[in-house]
Amino acid sequence: MPTLDTMIVDDEPAARRDLQQVLAAIDGVRVVAQASDAAAARQLARKHRPQLIFMDVQLPGADGFAAIDGIIDERTCVIFTTAYAQFAIRAFEIGAIDYLLKPVDEDRCRRAVERARQQLGKNRAADMVQVVEVEERGAQVRVAAGEITLVTAQGNYLELDYRGGRGLVRNTLEGLLAMLAGHLVQINRSQALRLTAVRSYRGNAQSGVLILLANGTEVAVSRRRVAAVTAALRAAGQQRHEGG
User: Fold this and answer.
1) Is residue 173 within 8 Å of 151, Cβ to Cβ?
2) CATH number for position 55
């Protein structure tokens, strides 16, 4: 059984301690980080890349729903924890794998972890169906399609940003998009991205749309693609920010 690297996010030290004790009794779970607010959660998620996040709904500054913005993707499952049941519907709407009421019951938590494990297994299998060979620093690296976050055309090559690195592929953007149908969305003449790599976006058809990726990169959507791209972002659960 593969071990799930797990992060706990809760502003109450006692709640974090109690949940850690519950998780200690569940096989195949390793707590690699703990955070008390949204900013720390994002920073630690980028550092540790947890596969499973237990996220408190009510946090100082930004709530748990805002905290997962930009850190959840097919390789990360989120389980929300709270003392209030009224947040459950919203949690599932934004893609949470489960929702636990405090104090967290061990058997209920065990079932939630198993659901996350099954979902991560399905996602991993789907992502590994297609693999791209990328040249990185003189070496050939096999990159799963699901790991690619941004593609930028550079002359006769494509520059691929993916989890853990950046490399080159000799292909056209049109050719790569055809090969990886369903994985990427073209946003302008020379770039395509993975929707789950998006942290937020702002703007509209009149002012132009800018997309902020989870790694801090900002890219522009061409005017002719604004409608299609923003529709895809909304369908993926992304929210427009800054009054766009």
Assistant:
1) yes
2) 3.40.50.2300
User: Is the entire prediction scored with pTM above 0.70?
Assistant: no
Taking alpha carbons only, the member of 107, 116, 83, 106 closest to residue 22 is 106
Segment 59-103, tens digit of pLDDT: 887 888 888 776 666 678 999 998 887 777 777 777 788 999 999
Confidence of residue 8 (pLDDT cuts 50, 70, 90): very high
Domain containing 159 equals: 131-241
Asked if 100 contacts 80 with a C-beta cutoff of 8 angstroms, the reply is yes
DSSP secondary structure letters along 12-68: -HHHHHHHHHHHHTSTTEEEEEEESSHHHHHHHHHHH--SEEEEES--SSS-HHHHT
How many domains is the chain partitioned into structurally?
Answer: 2
Count of positions (residues) in the chain: 244
Residue 146 vs residues 157, 190, 195: alpha-carbon distances, Å: 20, 20, 11
d(CA 30, CA 167): 31
